[in-house]
Amino acid sequence: MAAKRIPIARFLALYGIYAKMDLMWFLRDFKYAVLGILGDAVSNLTAVAGIFLLAWRFDGVGGMTRYEVLFMLGYSTLITGVFQTFFASNNTGHISRRIGRGQIDHMLIQPLPLPVQLLAEGFIPFTGSSNLVTGSLILAAAVHFMEIALPWWWIFSLIGNVAVTMLIILSESYLYSSVAFYAPAAAEEIAYYVIDLRSPLSQYPLSGMPLQLQIPLITAVPAGLLAWFPTMALLGKPPLSLTSFFPVLVAVLFFLLAQFTFRKGMMHYVKTGSSRYLTQGYRR
User: For burial by CB atoms within 10 Å, which of 40, 169, 254, 276 has the most?
Assistant: First the structure.
């Protein structure tokens, strides 16, 4: 059956609906929401502070100046904020949880295409944007301290790099989450391990590492493409003599692999269903 086309106005209306629900939750328990938002921001700042203090103590790390490291940490925080704002709610980013819990069935009966639901349901602009704001401020501070003049088109380059980085993260999540179609109990949390537990690695500069470690970290396990490589490219110094468009090539490759494996998993899923609803299922 051909996928339905959703007008952009309808898609934005869905964003408005989820934003309204997020605001209602925020206002329902204001103190709890504020504490949660502040706690999330403080937690992320604490995580990046240690790396920046090392860079400050040694006047840079691996050939990167202290403020270039700060820029990289700001970019990493910004990426975390974008993910939390657009894909943290309802496990649209951690899709293996929805597959493993049999919740794909709930989505298939909705009067919207599956991709539209996945793109809209994760939107929480009020309770999920703390790191988005924090990362933007850190980036602005790093640019200010470096005292560099940026061309007018640089902001579009930043947006493009963020979009490519998000495509890599989501493609990895959906690629590895496809295992949950076949082993729902064992692979329910695989997206968490792929995304959340790898993010600390992406906050370290790879400039001082040997080539034997750099290559795997920008290809097979692309942690270096989540902050380090985009930072160097945005500062006009793409590493390893590679083009600034190298992350785009990796993102497209991971996207195509994710699309293929996820479609194969869905074909298996629609034939076998979820073991959650079977007598011998691991959940009832």
Answer: 169
